[in-house]
Structures are given as structure tokens and as C-alpha cells.
Amino acid sequence: MRDIFKRYTDEAYDDDGLLTQFSLHWPKNYNFAYDVVDDIAIAEPDRPAMVWCNPEGEEHIFSFGDLKHWSDKTANFLADAGIKKGDLVLVILRRHYQFWFVALALNKLGAVIVPATFMLKEHDLAYRVNSAEITTVICTDLGDIAEVIDNSLADCPSLQTRILVNGGSGGLGARSDVADDSALSGPEGLCQLGADRSGWIDFNSGVRASSADFAPVDTQAADPMIMYFSSGTSGNPKMVLHDASYSLAHLGTARHWQQVRSDGGLHFTIADTGWGKAVWGKLYGQFLMEACVLTYDYDRFDVDEICRLIEHYRVTTFCVPPTMYRMIMAEDVSGYDLSSIEHSVTAGEALNPDLFASWYELTGLYIYEGFGQTETPVTVCNIKGMRPKPGSMGRPLPLYDIAILDADGNECSTGQTGEICLRIDTGDPACPYPPGIMLEYFRNVEKTTEAIHDGWYHSGDLAWRDEEGYYWYVGRNDDVIKSSGYRIGPFEVESVLVEHPAVRECAVTGVPDEVRGFVVKASVVLNEGYVASDELSEELKDFVKKETAPYKYPRIISYLDELPKTVNGKIRRAAIRAQDLEDAMSSTPRAPEEFGG
Distance (Å, rounded) from C-alpha 285 to C-alpha 98? Predict the structure, then answer.
């Protein structure tokens, strides 16, 4: 093991082993693919980097040497297809192993990877392509996303090159055009299956035919490296642009929050590659720690499948959102051996105390919560040496200077709700922002200035700090409900409601009220076996009153078949608020499915 992370970090710990100082440094020409993946590949070509498998039984163990070999071939193939330094390339590859080839190859070329989910529709796709003037898309042939792209061509004048990846089965079952799905497995099987679609270039055959002798491209750490479209819970998604320091900043994610183990460990983050959490848990920080990751190329989350994977591959560190922990705990998993898990973490939504306790009862492990955004890596989290508090995000990572500020820019006192802000001024002209913080909202000076001003990055997320410095999430700035002088965070109410056995998921919003300003409304999706009724509504109201401050209880409860969500799966409270406003002005409210997303 080369301890590559030590090249880029300075750390200090107190007498109890708690991290107290954490900083990063890097050369001007730092490149993740060259300086991390290829470095390991040259020194230890057989070191395992990724275990890849799917529900159909295909499996491949990729070494760092394999990743260098295939990413070099991919880089040559993409260069021949016209991709060059600075190009923005839309990548929609589900959990196919080809995503890793592409991500590293684009990094080597100095191009910018723009990951996206396969759930996009024509409107979503056209917005992304046109906003960034995307010229090339690399896409899976599974599902209907290639058809969505073809249907959008007339509205996407910049899109010139379409590259199609045969993704094999991908959890969708045996393919009619493939006689033997095992062709994806084994050294000779990689990229074996071709894709034939009019107007598209076949990725697999092109990569296989390309040379593995790649001449490095001159790149700089300050060059743009990756861009994500934000989740867009209100309005159109913003384009979040990062440079190479973003990869290094995920040492905080992998080393200190996820606590991945480099030798003999296996880290499992469940996330589609179209989401930011994929590079949080399946690429940058883990490979900087020279650790191995598990990737499961599945279509739908299945508790039994996930538990079998953990048992079979002896997963040591585990990261999923609270929703998936809840799904696991809702099933009888006592027959599975989950004892290999040494550390478990979560982020992305509220973690209620009941779930925290039930996971501990099952595994003997605490769930270490963390907080970050598309614009950042993990910034507030529970790390080694801390005792997690159920429902708390933890404390600021020492890599960053973080404060909770009020509307006037003053630091909030203990217990006072304010906005989570991160100090931007580094004093270094060559690196004006802390590592991992976005460069900008691409092509949107107004939104960038709204977020970064007066020496701070303003997250738009509200929290309060307790007397021990732990942060407690309240909600988005525009999600907080002001009722009768109280400020009520939706997560506070949602985290209670989901503990009731009738509630599968819920969204809490504010509804205008002449007397109180706003009242709390809960939009609830019920579990099987429960039926909406006035009696159930009263039961849910009483449940909230007993479990938290009574002023927070939802005075209005509505029942939906599903909640409106973004393509990335985040609840669109803004859509619910907009529909409530329209209903208030109309005598004929529309059905929920008419504004679902």
C-alpha cells in the first residue's frame, strides 16, 4: 500500500484520537486519474479496486491495473470520437462498470464529466443539453433513455455525437438479443456485447478495438473536472461545476466519515452513477484510500438481494440513505449474517431516532450521519471518536470553517436556528475557495452571487447547534414554516411521522392561514394495509403531539399515492406548496397525480 492520501493531507489528533486538524494541498497539475488510479496501477497492478456484479449472477473483480488499462483504451476511443480537453460530456450509465472507464478517461482527456440519471424525460434531457451546450452523450442502451435522447434531437442543436453502451442485463433480466449473459464476465468478456442503434456509435466494440497505449494530456488541478445538475427541488436545476480539488476533498468523506478500510475491506455505497452520491462513495475518496468498492448493477432495490450481497462479499463499510435503512428494518433480515459490517453511515434526508435505535439493535452499530450538498463533499458529519446523537448531522469537519449565521450574517447562539454557511476566503490567490467547494453555478452569475458573497458560501440549509457543537438539521430556507411565531422545520415533523406504522413516507409543508400565518400540512403516503380516514388523521396528529413539541403537529393531513419528486428522488415540497396555492384559488382542486413529478 502506498498511502497516497498522505501526499495531500496534513492531520492532527487530540489525546483521545479525535481529528482536530485536517487540511489538503496538491500540485498545480494534479489529476485524479493519473496521480491516484494510474499511480496505484503501476505500483500494485493487482490491488483490487472494484467488485462489480448484477442480479443475473455476472461478476468481475477489477484491479487498479484493470482500470488503468480500460480507461486508457476508453480515452483513445473518446479522443477518436472527437472529445477533447474542456468538452462537457453527458454520461448516463446507471451502475455499469463502463462508468468507471468513462469517468477516468474523461479526466485523463481533461474533459468534464456530466453524470445524469437514466430517469430523465425529454424535457429534462433537452434542458440539460441546451443549458450546458452538450455536444456528446454517452448512454446506456437499457431502458428507454436512448429513445428519450433521440426524441429530443430536434430541440438539442448542440448535440452532435451519441455513444451507446450495451449494459448487458443490469438487473432487468435476460436479454433477447444476448444468448449468454455471462459474456460480460471474465477478462475476455469485458465490453463484449455490441450495441446497434441508428445514429449511435457502439462504445463497447470501439473501446475493445482501441489501443491501450495512451499519451497523457496536460491538465491542471484548477481545470473543471465534473459538473452535476442540482436536484432542482424548486425551479430548474442549477449546473454545479467542480475542479480537481473536489476529488481530494472526498478524503474527508471516505477516510473520516465512512472510515473505509484499505486492506481487506470492502465499501458499499448504494447509489446510481447519475447521482452525486456515487462519486462520494464509489470513486474519489475510496480510491484515494486505495480501498475496494462494491458495485451492484441492479434496477430496483430489494432488501433480500442487498443483505445477500453484504453476507456474501463481507462488506465492511456501508452507506445508504435513511429510506433504505427503513426498508431493510421493515423486513425480517435476522437470517442474514451482517456481522462483517464495521461502520455504517447515512446522508441525504432525516434519520429518525427510532431507526437509529433499531439498526443498533440489529447490528450493534451506530449510524454515523453526515451532511453535504451537490456543491460540496461532506462538510458536517460524525467521525471516529465521536458518539453520534440520533438525528444529529454531527460536527463540522475540520477541513472547513463552518458557522450557523442569522439573516444579518451574525453567528447564531446555541439553540438558535440559522443558515449553514462555509467560509470561502482562503487567503491564497491560487486557490481562493476551500477544496471541494463548487467553482460556480455554470453560466449563472446571479445564482452564484446569491450563494457566494461576503466571504461565505451560503448553503440554503437551516440548522441549529447544541451545547456540544453538534448540528441539527431543520430544513431548506424556503421549506421552513412560520406558524404563530414559531419556526418549524419540515424534517422535525417528518422524522416523527415516519415512525408511525401507517406512514411509508411523507412531506411536510406550510399552508397559508389567516390567523397563524401558516399551518403545518402533512402529505402522507400510507403503507399497505392502511386506509385514509378521518380517524387515522386524528391518530397521526395525536402521535406527533406526543412525540415532539405540540405546536409542530400537522393541522392538515392529505393522502397521496406518491409524493412529487425530482428525477433524483428528492421530494419537491415546492410542487406541493404550488398546488396548495392553486387549490386555494380554485373551487375544483386537481387530483394529486396531476402535479406529481
Answer: 19
Three-state SS for 474? Answer: strand
Q: Which residue, chain included where needed, has cell 481529528?
A: 19
Contacts of 178 (CB under 8 A, 6+ apart): 168, 169, 193
Alpha-carbon dihedral of residues 569, 573, 574, 576, nearest 10 degrees?
110
Sequence-distant (≥ 6) Cβ neighbours of residue 72 within 8 angstroms: 105, 108, 211, 212, 213, 214
Q: State the pLDDT at residue 345.
A: 98
Residue 160, C-beta contacts closer than 8 angstroms, at least 6 positions apart:
82, 135, 136
The gap from C-alpha 135 to its chain's centroid, in whole angstroms, comes to 25
CA distance 483 to 68: 57
Mean pLDDT of the chain: 90
The answer to whether 252 touches 299, Cβ cutoff 8 Å, is no
Nearest to 348 by CA among 329, 311, 313, 374: 374
pLDDT tens track for 239-251: 999 999 999 999 9
* CB neighbour list of residue 590: distance below 8 Å, 6 or more residues apart: 579, 582, 583
CA distance 238 to 351: 26
- Note the pLDDT of residue 403: 98
Looking up cell 463499510, which residue turns up? 317
> Residue with C-alpha cell 408511525?
500
CB 74 within 8 A of CB 209: no
Main-chain dihedrals φ then ψ at residue 500, nearest 5 degrees: -75, 135
> What letter does residue 411 receive in the DSSP assignment?
B
Residue 567 corresponds to which amino acid? V
* Residue length of the chain: 597
Other CB atoms closer than 10 Å to residue 24's CB: what's the count?
18
| CA–CA dist 90, 88 (Å, integer) | 7
Q: How far is Cα 398 from Cα 20, in angstroms, rounded to an integer? A: 6
Is the CB of residue 463 less than 8 Å from the CB of residue 417?
yes
- pLDDT tens-digit readout, 505-523: 999 998 887 777 788 999 9
Q: How big is the chain by its Cα radius of gyration, in Å? A: 24
Element (H, E) at 100: helix 98-109
